[in-house]
Amino acid sequence: MASSTALTSKVESGSPYQLDKPQVGKATTALLRHIKSKQEEKEKTATKKTLIGDNDSDDDEDTPLSNEAIWLILTTKKHVVDKNRLKPGKISVPHSLYSSPSLSICVITADPQRSVKDIVADSAFPSEISSRIEKVIGFSKLKARYTSFESRRQLLSEHDVFLADDRIINRLVPTLGKIFYKSSKRPIPIRIAKIEKEDGKRVKKDPKKKAPKEERTAAFASPLIVAKEIERTLQCTPVQLAPATTCAVRVGSSKFTADQLTENITAVVDGMVQKFVTKGWRNIKAIHVKGANTTALPIWLASELWVDETDIVEVDPLAVEGDAKASKKRKSTGDEKLLEDKKSKKSKAADEGEDAAEVAARIEKLKKLKAQALEDGEPVKAEAPKAEKKKRKSTS
Question: Using one digit for the tens of pLDDT, what is the confidence trace for 189-219?
Answer without folding.
Answer: 999 888 766 555 655 665 555 555 444 567 8
